[in-house]
Amino acid sequence: MTLLIEKLVSRKAFESMPPEVQLALKQSGEQIGPIVRARARAEVDEAVAAMVKRGLIVTKPSNQDLKQWESLAEQLYPRIRGKLVPSELFDEVLADVKTFRSMRR
After folding, report:
1. Domain ranges of the chain
2. How many Å separate Cα 96 from the centre of its chain?
């Protein structure tokens, strides 16, 4: 089940659907995902441009800064996993993040 579908339908509801409906939802999520991401990125770019126009100074973090930030975030995982976010969902998202980061580096 994709993250997009999990935001729209509970796992219990999804698993109660006929296999062909599950497949259709998965395929729809895979098709719309890139479109949603592209639109979200464009909206962020537009918002940042508007703020820069009004005086915002944008600072891009260095690779070292990003590594420090990721390290700090990882220290918080035990306080989040299973407490604020269900363990299964946390693990799935974390695996997706690791895959994404490995592709862009």
Report:
1. 1-58, 59-105
2. 8
